[in-house]
Structure formats: C-alpha cells, structure tokens
Amino acid sequence: MNIDKYLFVSDEVKLALENKKPVVALESTIISHGMPYPQNVQTALNVEKIVRENGAVPATIAIIQGRMTVGLSPEQIEYLGKKGLEVTKASRRDLPVLLSRGMDGATTVATTMIGASMAGVRVFATGGVGGVHRGAEVTMDISADLEELASTPVMVICAGAKSILDLGLTLEYLETRGVTVIGYRTNELPAFYTTHSGFSVDYRLDTPEEIARAFRVKIDCGLSGGMLVTNPIPEQYAMDLDYINENIDKAIDEMNARGIHGKASTPFLLDMIQMLTGGKSLEANIQLVYNNARLASRVAAALVANG
C-alpha cells in the first residue's frame, strides 16, 4: 500500500520524528468550527508557539486536497480559518470520501488521532474530547472520539470531556472500552469550562514524567488503544459550575427546538454557550487549549527521554 498517496508529513515534523525529538499533534476543527475568524487563526498559531516554547515541535493536522497533512503551514492554517464552516468536519467515517475526492477536511479528535498515528506522533493536545451525549440512551449519539481512544495508540491531553455531554456515561463507556483516564494533579474529571464534575478519574498522576512512563508501559506491553489525560483549566479562567450548567441547559433546549443533531450539535452548542456567556466561554476555551499544549509538550519530551 502506498500510504504516501494519502499522507503528507511536513519536513519539520518528519525531521523531528527521525531525530527522536518531541512532537505534539494538534487538531484543526478548532480552527474551522471552533471560533470565528481571525481569532481562530491567531489561537492556532499561538498554540503552535506555546508548543515550541515548551521544547516540542507542533504538528497541526488537517486534510488538504485529499491528503492527511501532518504539520500545516501558516498559510494552510489561514486558509482553514477563512473558509471556516465551509470546510467539512471530518471524522473517521468521512476519510474514504474526502481522500478519494481530493477534498479538504478539518480533523476532529478521532481523525487527528488517526493522522498522528499514521505519521508516528504519540502525543496530541486538544481542548476537550467528545463523548456520550445527553439523552444518548434514546438517540445513540456517542462520539467517534471514544472508539478511536479504544483503538488508536495516541495519548490525548485535554481539559476533560465537554460539559455539554453526559460525563458519567462517557466515563462508563471509556471504562468498557478499556481506556485509562488520568487526572493531571487531580482526582476529579475536569469538565472543560470548570475544574469540577463530581466524577472521579481512574488515576491521578502529578508529573509529565509519570504520565509518559505509564504510556510507555502501555506501548511496550502491546496494549491497544490510547490514553486520556485530563488537565484542569487554570483556576483563574475556570467558570462557575452552576452558571455554566445553566447556560448549557439553555443551549440544549434551543438546539432541540431547532431540530439540530449529529455532528452539527457540538459546534452549535459551543457557539450558543459563547453568546449566552457574553464571550466568557470562548476565552475559557482558548486558555484551556493553551494549558493543554504546555502539558502535552512536556509529556512528549518525557516520552522521548524515556525511550
């Protein structure tokens, strides 16, 4: 199989991997579907800058003209930011058609994991992962992110699952699929905008080195799937739990009233919550992504140092 037909790895990322330097994968739906232009582009470039400042090489991933591209150029990030919602939000199911048609796609957590794994990148920083949606016992709306975590050997560092989800069911699903959920310096699952959820993680680890060692053991033992590392939003940017839940409930009511479902639901809810909170949720979103990029860079460095 000629994988190069469908995969492009930038020279910088390729050289870093060949020389066993730390690399951090970054997603692209946050650029096209996560926030408005030009804030989306500036945030993406800032995340890359933070990764570099913390000793790693950034590898922003997207599908560009039918190729899984690992390590976007600034011009490609600008392109995705300007096109925004016109770019297909690409999950695993979309890959065969997008690649065969030579189309563009902004990669979700699941698809970014696939691209990272294809290129040999082990650590991925994002905002929050998808999960089991509220009411999933009726709708069966469960993010493909969870299945990818169960099968693809990439560590995902995030601020927990998005608070718009059913966090308890999300943890149950991850447990069923054998995905280890780590809390970085916390015993409690962070809930994206807030540090508190009322749900416990599997293990608390307090240093990047401990996290890297645990993932190295997973790799060495041939255990399938990835690992979920949850990193609480910095306290100064965290939102009050009751306040954010009240606005999430309003956003969900509006979504249901409009009949929005499937992959359109998360972008709609995040945008609605941003409006309801007067932009506070967007600022929190940006800061937690920056925070995750810092931790991911340190974990990637420790993973390289650990063999």
Structure description:
The chain is α/β, with parallel strands linked by helices and 307 residues long. It contains 13 helices and 11 strands. The protein has helices at residues 11-18, 29-32, 39-53, 74-83, 95-101, 109-119, 136-139, 144-151, 167-176, 208-220, 241-258, 265-276, 280-305, and strands spanning 7-9, 23-26, 57-64, 67-70, 88-90, 105-107, 123-125, 155-158, 180-184, 203-205, 227-230. Strands 1, 2, 3, 4, 5, 6, 7, 8, 9, 10 and 11 form an 11-stranded mixed sheet that branches. The radius of gyration is 18 Å and the shape is globular. It starts with 6 loop residues before the first strand and ends with a helix. The mean pLDDT is 92.
**Which structural class do the helices and strands define?**
alpha/beta
Order of helices and strands: EHEHHEEHEHEHEHHEHEEHEHHH
Share of helix among residues?
Answer: 40-55%
Strand runs, count: 11
Average pLDDT across residues? 92
Strand content: 5-15%
Describe the largest sheet: 11 strands, mixed
Q: How many helical stretches?
A: 13
Dominant shape: globular
How far is the first residue's CA from the last residue's CA? Answer: 29 Å
Based on CA atoms alone, the radius of gyration comes out at: 18 Å
Q: Which regions contain 5 or more consecutive residues with pLDDT less than 50?
A: none
Descriptive key words:
single chain; 307 residues; alpha/beta; eleven-stranded mixed sheet; 13 helices; 11 strands; globular
